[in-house]
Specification:
Length: 55
C-alpha cells in the first residue's frame, strides 16, 4: 500500500490503483510518502487491500 499526501489529506492507494491511476496521481501532484505492507489498510480509491488473504 502506498501513502500519498494530497490536497485533501493523506491517502492510502493500493498497488493496483497506483498503476491504473498513475496519470491522475501525477496530474494532481500527489506526493509519495512511503509504502507499508498491512492487510488492515484499505485503498482510498477502490476500498480494497493490496492482496486477499486466503485461509
Amino acid at each position: 500500500m502506498h501513502l500519498f499526501e494530497t490536497e485533501k489529506g493523506d491517502r492510502w492507494v493500493c498497488i493496483h490503483c497506483g498503476v491504473e491511476e498513475k496519470e491522475m496521481i501525477e496530474q494532481k501532484k500527489w506526493e509519495y510518502i512511503f509504502d507499508r505492507e498491512d492487510q488492515t489498510l484499505r485503498c482510498s480509491i477502490c476500498g480494497k487491500a493490496d492482496y486477499d488473504i486466503e485461509d
